[in-house]
């Protein structure tokens, strides 16, 4: 995967970085932990500017977050509740769960949105409740920029500082990301297995 990412960055420059980070938010197995350090290394070689690399990565991430936010706004809460009534097991949600999720998100969204951008899997998922529960764009976009900016800048600067050893970032963060993704998947299947609709509400 490193060669493919490197070739895309080499051939497309800032646009390639933005595209890769956009895809990373759509398809989490494409790792930002490899994309941004490699882009930072390209900046260290003088092929790209560091500021351009960081802005491209952040722009791609925000665009990916806006994609899922828009999809979630189209789905909307009413449709989600209907789906939960019919397919609650596979969503692992019933109507009461959705109400609790809405209450939690509305109380904690100011830190949940930016914080999720440093956690693999969650950086994609956090845009969905933001859209479902109609978080205003004037709040969602700055919070997304904050979280994605901190993460992409940290990775890009690490690649810039490490130079040819940029892959050390992925070597250490990559396994941690895989473990987190595996835990999220295991938690989902555990929820499916144990799901029982709450009929009390």
Mean pLDDT: 79
What is the total tally of β strands? Answer: 0
Major sheet description: none
Structural class: mainly alpha
Distance between the termini: 48 Å
Oligomer: single chain
Radius of gyration: 18 Å
Number of helical regions: 9
Shape: elongated
Please, could you describe this protein's structure?
It is found in: Cell membrane. InterPro entries: DedA_domain, VTT_dom. The protein has 9 helices and no strands. The chain is mostly helical and 201 residues long.
Topology:
Blueprint: H1 2-12, H2 14-26, H3 32-44, H4 50-91, H5 95-116, H6 122-125, H7 127-132, H8 137-162, H9 167-194
Summary, kept brief:
The protein has 201 residues and is mainly α. The chain has nine helices and no strands.
Keywords:
82% helix; cell membrane; 201 residues; mainly alpha; VTT_dom
């Amino acid at each position: 995967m490193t060669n493919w990412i490197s070739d895309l960055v080499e051939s497309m420059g800032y646009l390639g970085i933005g595209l890769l980070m956009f895809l990373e938010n759509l398809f989490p197995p494409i790792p930002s932990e490899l994309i941004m350090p490699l882009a930072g290394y390209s900046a260290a070689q003088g092929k790209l500017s560091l500021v351009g690399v960081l802005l491209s990565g952040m722009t791609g991430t925000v665009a990916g977050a806006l994609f899922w936010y828009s999809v979630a706004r189209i789905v909307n809460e009413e449709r989600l509740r209907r789906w939960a009534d019919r397919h609650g097991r596979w969503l692992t949600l019933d109507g009461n769960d959705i109400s609790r999720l809405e209450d939690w998100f509305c109380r904690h969204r100011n830190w949940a949105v930016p914080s999720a951008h440093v956690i693999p899997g969650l950086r994609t998922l956090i845009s969905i409740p933001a859209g479902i529960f109609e978080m205003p764009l004037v709040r969602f976009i700055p919070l997304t920029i904050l979280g994605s900016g901190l993460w992409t800048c940290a990775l890009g600067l690490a690649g810039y500082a490490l130079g040819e050893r940029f892959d050390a970032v992925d070597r250490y963060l990559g396994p941690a990301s895989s473990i987190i993704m595996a835990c999220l998947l295991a938690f989902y299947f555990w929820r499916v297995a144990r799901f029982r609709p709450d009929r009390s509400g």
